[in-house]
Amino acid sequence: MSSLLGKLEKALKGQAKSVSSTKDRRYRVTVDSENIVNGAKILFDDFKSRFMTATCVDEGLDFSILYHFDIGGEVVTLGTSIPKEDPRLQSISLAVPTAQWIEREITDLFGVKFEGHPQPEELIAAEGWAEETPPLQKPREGNIVPEYRGAIENVISTGAVVSLSSFTKRKRQEAGLAPTTITIEDEEGRDELHKILKRSKVDERAGFDWKKKKLRYK
Q1: Does residue 131 lie in a domain region?
Q2: 63 backbone dihedrals φ, ψ, rounded to 5°
Q3: DSSP element (H, E) containing 208
Q4: Full residue range of the structural domain in which residue 61 is found
């Protein structure tokens, strides 16, 4: 283990979800969004780092916000993820003043709102951008093709889906009954399946919202 990696793990214990070495002299610190300011303050104050820049990566359903610091010639990237449905993140600019300009640029280009920013005015946005989709923001889209989204949504939320025959569908329609699916009725079995889906991160890869019981992009 490198000397810096060990120091980062110790200093960020309780703040970081993970601390790793990505390649020679480069490190990645991942935090929950609510810990981004504390993480930046530790890197900037405790490690006497030099703030380099920040980048925003459009992941389809989420934005990855990455802050890059130089610590004695080694680069540490502090990153977090925020949902595109509500792209808000606490600004680190009060702890790291030199981050003000790049946060304003990310706002103009991607639409991310940095709360608590001391000067949130547009930096490079052309007239009329505020009324339009930010130029570098892609549509909110996941990796399930449209024709399978309904089935995948039902499989994750209810446990299973069995397609009804065309005869059964027609008879239900004639009887005035709503469309339905056949699902796992056993609550214990459904809970076990949900645990497996979460443990294997199938739900994350599909872009499933457990609170709404829906895909985030259907």
Answers
A1: no
A2: -105, 135
A3: strand 208-209
A4: 3-123
Residues 90 and 150 in one domain: no
Residue type, 93: S
> For every one of its 218 residues, what pLDDT tens digit does the chain have, with 9 covering 90 and above?
579 999 999 999 999 999 999 888 999 999 999 999 999 999 999 999 999 999 999 999 999 999 999 999 999 999 999 999 999 999 999 999 999 999 999 999 999 999 999 999 888 876 666 567 888 999 998 889 888 888 888 888 887 666 666 777 788 788 888 776 666 667 888 888 899 999 999 999 999 999 999 999 96
SS3 (DSSP) at 192: helix
CA 128 – CA 122 distance, rounded (Å): 11
Residue 129 lies in a domain: no
Q: What is the CATH number of the domain that holds 111?
A: 3.30.460.80
Would you say 111 and 85 are in contact if contact means Cβ atoms under 8 Å apart? no
Q: Is the dihedral of CA 20, 112, 86, 42 positive or negative?
A: positive
Percentage helix, strand, coil for the chain under 3-state DSSP, each rounded to 5: 35, 25, 40
Cα 78 to Cα 14: distance, rounded to the nearest angstrom? 15
pTM of the model: 0.82
- Burial label for 79, CB within 10 Å (0-12, 13-18, 19+), is buried
Residue 206 resides in a domain:
yes
List CB contacts of 178: < 8 A, sequence separation 6 or more: 172
